[in-house]
Amino acid sequence: MSLLAEERKKRIFEIVDHLGQVKVNDLAKDFNVSTETIRRHLEELENENKVKKVHGGAVKVESPPNELSMFEREILNIDKKIIIGQKAASIVKNEEVIFVDEGSTTLQMASILKDKKDITVITNSFPLAVKLMGYEEQKLFKGEIIFLGGHVRGNHFRTSGSLAETMAKEFFVDKAFIAIDGIEESAGITSYDLDKCMLSRIFIANSKQSYILSDSTKIGVRANYKIELLSEIDFIITDVPKPDHMGINEAKWIQG
Least crowded by CB within 10 Å, which of 19, 115, 131, 147? Predict the structure, then answer.
């Protein structure tokens, strides 16, 4: 069988998609080309996120789960999220400047933040900003609210992208509170949204202390995009004790 490179790549992808895996030696024999040629095709397909290379061949790339909308996330594990969010807010001191990431768990911080004196809240979360504005109108909140402009993700009620990142880089804060989709010892903290990852990295880098908010359903989960390694994070706030397999400092783990 003699095919042009692009035709071979297309056929290889079809085989992987159908069988779930392929071997370099088998493909080289089937297409009557060298193993080096097949490896090059597999590398190109991996760069296109169509296959995942493994030793001696390649396997099918499984479709990642879609990130739930803000409303869908808000009702899941709500009891845990309230405990974690309120614990996080209790750590904030009067007159501090903080980043609060978009998320259904970070949103639970609002009811406690309203009682803090002279704090500045910098956020990309529409729901959090609206809640704090409501408290401000009722004269229950007397701090400052700074909203990061940028590309609007309507389904998640947040901003992200280069404009939000540029604005975030201008601030240096006392504490950053980050929402995530997964936390695993080897992968660190991860998300299903690349733009969210980029913004979260800036929050972490530009804060004196970083706090990750994660309910127990996200522990041991690896989402598609890495935000940071656990070594770069100061604290993790969650609803369960630290698992024995999670090799991080016990002092970093805060149970709500």
Answer: 19
Instruction: Identify whether the C-beta of residue 103 lies closer than 8 Å to the C-beta of residue 125.
Output: yes
Report phi then psi at 70, rounded to 5: -60, -45
Instruction: Write phi, then psi, for 143 (nearest 5 degrees).
Output: -90, -165
| Per-residue DSSP letter, 222 | -
Cα 102 to chain center, whole Å?
11
If one counts every other C-beta atom within 10 angstroms of the C-beta of residue 9, the result is 20
Residue 39: name the closest of 53, 60, 19 by CA.
53
Q: What is the pLDDT of residues 43-90, one digit of tens each?
A: 888 887 788 888 888 888 765 555 554 445 555 678 899 999 999 999
This prediction has a pTM of: 0.71
Q: What is the mean pLDDT of the chain?
A: 88
Pairing of strands 225-228, 188-191: antiparallel
Q: From residue 93, how far is each of 114, 116, 178, 237, 255 by CA, in Å?
A: 12, 7, 17, 17, 19
**H runs (alpha helix) in 160-214:** 162-168, 194-205
Q: How far is CA 66 from CA 19, 72, 88, 181, 227, in A?
A: 24, 12, 27, 11, 18
Residues 56 and 5: their CA atoms lie apart, in Å, by 20
